[in-house]
Amino acid sequence: MRTKSGAALSGLLAIGVVLGTGACGASKTESPGAAGSCDTSKGTLVVGVIAPMSGKLSAIGLGIRNSVQLAVEQANEKCAVKGYQLKMDAQDDEANPDKGAAAAQRFADDANVVGIVGSYNSGVARAIQPKIASTKLVQISPGNTDPALTRGAEYATAPKRQHENYFRVVGTDDLQGPYNARFLVQDEGKKRIAIITDGKAVAENMATEFTKEIEKLGATIVGREKVNENDSDFSSVLTKIKSLKPDAIFTGCDYSISGPLAKQAKDLGLNVPVSGNDGIFDPQFIALGGREGDIAASVGAPIDKLPTGSAFVEAYKKKNFPEGYGGFGSFAFDAANVIISSIGKVTASAAWTGAPEQRTALVKEVQAYSTDQGANGVVGFDEYGDSKNKLFTVYKVTSGAWKDVKSGQFEAK
Amino acid sequence: MTLIAENVSMAFGGLVALDDVTLTVPDRAIIGLIGPNGAGKTTLFNCLTGLYAPTSGRVLLDGRPLEADPAEAARHGVARTFQNIRLFSGMSALENVLVGRHTRIKQGLMSALFHGPAFRRSEAEAVERARAELAFVGLDPAGDTPARSLSYGDQRRLEIARALAGDPAVLMLDEPTAGMNGSETTAIRTLIGAIRDRGITVVVIEHDTKFIFSLCDHVHVLVRGRMLVSGPPEAVRTDPRVIEAYLGTTECSK
Amino acid sequence: MTLDRPPVRHRKPAAPELPGPAAVLLRLRAPAAAVLVLAGALLPWASVVLPGGAYPDLATLQFFDAPHLVTGFRLHLVLLGLAAALLPRARKPAAIGVIAIALVHMAFLTGLGALSIGGPVTLAAGALLLWAARAEPPRPRMELKTPPPAVAWLVLLVAFAALLWLVSATLTAGGQSRATNPYGGAEFLAFLGFGLAVAGVLSAYGVLAWISAMSERHRIFSIAVLLGCALMLPFTQAGTGYWMTVASSIGVYAATAIGLNIVVGLAGLLDLGYVAFLGIGAFTAANLAHAVPFPVAALAGAVTAGVFGVVVGSPTLRVRGDYLAIVTLAFGEIFFRAAQNDIGGLTGGANSIPGIPPINVLGLAFNEPVGGLPGGSRYYMISVLMVAGAMAVLANLRRSRTGRAWLAIREDEDVARAMGVRTGRAKIVAFLVGATLAGLAGAVFAHKLGTVGYESFDFSESVTLLAAVVLGGMGTVPGAVVGASLLFVLPEKLREFSDYRLMLFGLALILIMRFRPQGLVSSS
Amino acid sequence: MATLAQQIVNGLVLGALIGLIALGYTMVYGIIKLINFAHGEVFMVGAFGAHFTSAYLLPDAMPWYAALPVLCVAAVAVSVTVAVLMERLAYRPLRDAHSLAPLITALGVSILLQEVVRVFYPGATAPLPFPRVFVDSQLTAGSLIVQWTGVLAVAVSPLLAAALHWYVERSRLGRAMRAVAEDPDTARLMGIDLNRVILATFVLGAVLAGLGAVLYGIHYGQIDTTMGFQNGIFAFTAAVLGGIGSIRGAMLGAFCIGMVKSLAGQYAWGGAQYDYVWVFVLLILVLMFRPQGFLGRLERVRA
Predict the structure, then answer these.
(1) Which residue did the predictor score with more confidence, C259 or C48?
(2) Do residues A280 and A179 share a domain?
């Protein structure tokens, strides 16, 4: 016993010595580039990220994080904020409002944090908004689509700005749903449409707005069903829908559900197109079972047709992140750039202290921001904090890949 | 108080464990129940304490039929110990006895939440009584040792103290001296006598016939689920049927 | 039913005496190790100044350069080294602390490519110290005398103040922002190692047992002081809005976990859907938030949850043991689905219930900062009081007829019935009390967060609550609080491992069950 | 009518797949009274094992009759390895601890395995398409449509259950298992190597879970890291419903759950959004009126 532990310990010792000498020999100098060429004398500014980075939504959350990282690194290379080095601090919210609120509070307490990119889930945003409202910390969401977050519960009839420091760069459900509805009815001539949702806020709200528009256009919703977000067997729901004889299925769910759903629809001989929004506009949808003719209506111009969009994709690929940018990376990239550009303007006149007046000034700069050079084209905000970008593109699965068939502005009627 | 088993039969599936057994437990007596292994002694105990509902026949307590619920039996004054000691091993000795006192403590949920004066009085009474029972069976009245760390003999005593704390009219002891040496057995015999002197009827299951015959006022012999002989110790001891049925066991346990 | 046998410990036989110089060398191990620890603390740890600035506390400092700069982990190492040199019993805990500090910093520095000799030397010193400590014969337990009340009160006051300092220092160790202090994680983990070592040293000298005996004797005084200390937290370094937010979340979950501790820890009823009661309380309060003042809403939440507790508990009359686990899991799932589908328009479904106003007492909104304290501190105070109340409920019930009946059911249900315990009723009361506490916590949760949605109440939350109870120690009064704090603070502090958080959580559950199944705060 | 028939078929296929997981639950619980929540994860890692084999090891074009057995072997190998490690490293040291310790450990193992796969398996942060190795076509009878994969599942699953039943009833090891389930202490006294029997139980459960994983993958065409958890809960429910410890009961319970979920989605109040609720309501009702499940034995109070 004794000799054994003695031997183990001397082994440990030996390892320690080897490690030590090895490390002593190596000497490390500061890496050139990043901070080296710019003046960073005034310190570090932090762009906060709140997104789901573990659990089922991690693919989206990690894409958001990496895209903000990309924007921050590009800004540092270009010395976008004079006198400061930018950093990103990403906090996992686990798609849980309580965790998201704590993370937001952490950022709000920290004078070095200039703004938050996030959250992805509208439910998390509802918990974050009241936490940071009084601190005036700017928040730009790349993924919240609930219209009530900007315009209040009466968003359709009596819209009212909710928080002056909250913005978003994605289209809301009351744009995405109706746009999809118009395409299905007016362009595709669909008359009987079934809806499938998964109980998540984005799916439910989108489906409700979709239904309103379908009824305005004179077509019929033959049924609306909800599946469990953890489910993988949709045969029962699809059998029920099949008996209702629809000519299209609208899905509010993302590709992880819609892909298998499309596959199982085919298995049951339900050969009508599945139509969805941003959430299914992903190559994985096709890999998981999306069929020829399935439809996605997504915000913005086709990314590969915009020079800024393809530049983003190129730059992202060059960074060799282990994860892809996902469905919302380009929005997060745009959101981060809004914050970076605005902080540059605010700090041009005075050093950043994180005082409430400066945060308010930053909010004003964000509100005034406008460009058509974002990864998704137009980036800018209306009087409610919603994105001004109301351009939608419809894609169809054509020979195993998404192909854009139509782009157009959404005009409310 | 009298406890009566009237034509009790008990079958588990096809196995008949008790067959038409009648037994009367009179007031203030020590009753012995003997029989070879598997004779149905513990099954009879379980019927008498409400753990089993007899397949046929009934158990009467002071003339009223006993519900098949051990909690009800305990409330009506039937207490017991177990053949394989079953203490609440994670609780202290004192807490074990306090659980035995459960039915006699009056504490509402609200008073337990706030520990008001009435609660403290009732708790102090209960603790005092529990300590007295610990002392009565010969254990340390402080009782703060966890039950599982007591010695085997002390665990047997603790089980008896726990049963006594509920103010029983009838105390049923299932092999109280199993695995004990001579002096411990004598101590238990004295203890059982003292319990009887408190006015409590004691029913004892034992293999040690010498122990039973020297202690009991009445002895019942159960063989293969049937009541073979009942009577005073001298009569039972000399009964030829008992000697025949019990051959070997009597020989061994001199 | 067989008796639990006390664990048998096999002590290794004393090693035979070695002759001459070997024995002298062996005897010199411990002092040598202590000196080596001190040397390691003063050696350079990082080989370069890192891009993010000097490694904590100027880790690149050269041999014996400016010893007055010994702060941070170097200070901790020096303290542990001195303890090892002067206090023989302190060697083993000190060794573990030294090894932990050295390993954490070495891992970080190796990752940064700047490892220097300080770390390896200290690690070797720690290993040598551990070897020396293990070889020493076991010593009898130290027993300290109980002092007169006045002294005892002073000691308790100092002890609890030290505890407050320790909590505050642990929370703030490494700072809040990972972006501005990239070494925060290492600092925190190393501080944790130091804290554990100090606790180990105090325990080896019987100080912890001494203090806990004293606090048991002066119970009321201790509770008052402890409560006072807990309420002082916002005035320490940890009094930032962020830590107040996290701490009040901990409070909500700790109160819920205490309720679960009654059901699982005392009555032994395994509940896998417990978070539903938190949800019921939260939804009830959320629906009433605009109509009635907070105390009424909280009461309504507690009562509603209690009623559901009775409903969920009623099948327990027929279902035993692990079957109960699946029944409660089923109830939890039913609640989750019902909430998701906005049953009766009560839960808001996917859109959750937004815009719940903050608690407002006498015109003071609880989310506003007050007198230099951050906004969340009043929620923190409320949750401290709530947790204290829940602990009192658990402690009082534990020492009553009802509590003993629960324990008896947990230990042996058949015998409990034979002792006259109406087990069905007792179990339902356990569910009633537990669910009521959870419902109350839910009401605070709703107001604190300002929004309540179904996604806060899924199965994994029930697992976390159960883990809090078991990690802390089932059936113990502080157990659930300790468990809940750990399960919330560790992930918050270790955010740089965010990709691996859940993985580490799973691993921690396995390891703690493997090495300390009775929980961190053990009842026996 | 056609819809009803189709829903029954849907239920049968789902039940067959759940049943293979439920067998593992019922076996382990029967032997060591542990709700092995991590068993669903054994199923999940099996699926990823098969995915790895087909994505990185097998050549692209292989006829199904060659690819399918290889995938099965791979899935079973991975499942069994994980199950054995789990038993040896996590559960065995806790054999004498209080009963909640292994349960918490099981939950921990479940989380750990899900996260290890999610973080370290390439692309596993999102669902992965499973290779279509089996004939990708269907059997059509009137308006009734069944995938061949579904037919395969419904055919194979009861066969495997029957084989398991036969093995437990007839083989030497099976007899030992039953003895341990009945009374572990006596079994040990009789010279049965407890560790070996328990390990064998885990292995048998893992073999079935691995096969189930391949059937699942080829039927649904996708796998993800949470598939084990959700289906594991269903499987455990099935095992309890059927009477835990009973092999036939587990299959019966699984088919029952498949049926209820399928039919409730179509006909019951609330539609598909409440289909889980009906499964659990059924479970609660059954347990309240028949606590031992359909085919389970009631444990007698012992005194």
Answers:
(1) C259
(2) yes
Mutation choice for C interface testing from A41, A126, A230 by most C CBs within 10 A:
A126
For chain B, which domains are there?
Answer: 1-77+168-254 (3.40.50.300), 93-167 (no CATH)
Total domain count, chain A = 2
Spatial separation of the C-alpha atoms in residues B14 and B22, rounded to whole Å: 21
**Does C374 sit within 8 Å of A30, measured CB to CB?**
no
Could you give phi then psi for residue B116, rounded to 5 degrees? -75, 180
Residues A366 and A397 in one domain: no
Closest Cα in chain C, distance from residue A180 (Å): 21
Q: Using CB atoms, pick whichever of C2, C322, C517 lies closest to residue D33.
A: C322
Indicate the range of B9-18, C14-23, D5-14, D80-89 predicted with least confidence.
Answer: C14-23
Cα distance between residue D176 and residue D192, in whole Å: 7
Tell me the whole-structure pTM to 2 decimals: 0.88
A103 inside domain: yes
Q: Is residue A5 part of a domain?
A: no
CATH code for the domain of A189? 3.40.50.2300
Say whether C419 and B100 touch across the interface (CB within 8 A).
yes
A206 shares its domain with A336: no
- What pLDDT, on the 0 to 100 scale, is given for residue A235? 92
Nearest residue of A to residue C248 by CA position?
Answer: A102
- The overall average pLDDT reported for chain C is 85
The answer on A242 and A253 residing in a single domain is: yes
| Within a domain: A188 | yes
- Look up residue B51 and give its two tokens: 């753990």
The range of the structural domain enclosing residue A378 comes to 43-172+304-390
| A233 and A255 housed in the same domain | yes
Per-residue pLDDT reduced to its tens digit, D140-185: 888 888 999 999 999 999 999 999 999 999 999 999 998 988 888 8
B88/C411 CB distance under 8 A: yes
Which pLDDT score, from 0 to 100, does residue A141 have?
96
- Is A59 in contact with D7 (Cβ distance < 8 A)? no
pLDDT at B203 over 90: yes
Cβ of A5 within 8 Å of Cβ of C374? The answer is no
Yes or no, beta carbons of B82 and D303 under 8 Å apart: yes
**Chain D residues 51-70 with CB within 8 Å of chain C:** none
- Residue C65 has what DSSP assignment? -
Measured between alpha carbons, how far is residue C405 from residues C262, C409, D300 in Å? 12, 6, 22
Task: Identify the bridge partners of residue D139 per DSSP, sorted by sequence position.
Answer: D146
- Residues of chain A found within 8 Å of residue D14, distances taken between Cβ atoms: 233, 235
Q: Judge if A256 and A398 occupy the same domain.
A: yes
Up-side HSE of residue A157: CA atoms within 13 Å toward CB?
2
Sign of the torsion angle spanned by Cα atoms D83, D88, D90, D96: positive
Question: ipTM score here?
Answer: 0.88
Q: Which residues of C touch A55 (CB under 8 A)?
A: 502
Could you tell me how far CA A321 lies from the centroid of its own chain? 17
Q: What is the pLDDT of residues B4-22, one digit of tens each?
A: 999 999 988 778 889 999 9
Number of B:D CB contacts under 8 A? 10
Write down which chains contact chain B via at least 3 CB pairs under 8 A. C, D
